[in-house]
Amino acid sequence: MPTVQQLRSFVALCEHGTTTAAARATHCSVSTVSTHVHALESMMKTTLLVRTDGRFRPTARGLRVLAQAVRILEAHEGLARLRA
Predict the structure, then answer these.
(1) Whole-prediction pTM value?
(2) In 3D, which of 3, 63, 60 has the Cα closest to residue 36?
(3) How far apart, in Å, are the Cα atoms of 35 and each of 38, 39, 74?
């Protein structure tokens, strides 16, 4: 099962297109974002992102994973708000 951090890195990379921007958005290092996304791809046993014109874009499978990841992160944040 992917970690919340892996999902956040993946979503940020999909939204921002570069590891540098995704790292800024998630407040972690570029290498951490890269490690998270590679781990997620290994876990899913498929390529989720391709690099074109210097930017990362989700594959067809990546788009499906992105939709689920967004829902999971929204639910996680909703639970965190209940705890507060």
Answers:
(1) 0.94
(2) 3
(3) 5, 6, 22
**pLDDT above 80 for 84:** no
CA distance 22 to 34: 10
pLDDT of residue 80: 85
Per residue in 49-74, pLDDT (tens digit) is 999 999 999 999 999 999 999 999 99
Domain 4-83 has CATH 1.10.10.10: yes
Residue spans per domain, the chain: 4-83
Burial class (CB in 10 A: 0-12, 13-18, 19+), 7: buried
Q: Which two tokens stand for residue 35?
A: 């490690």
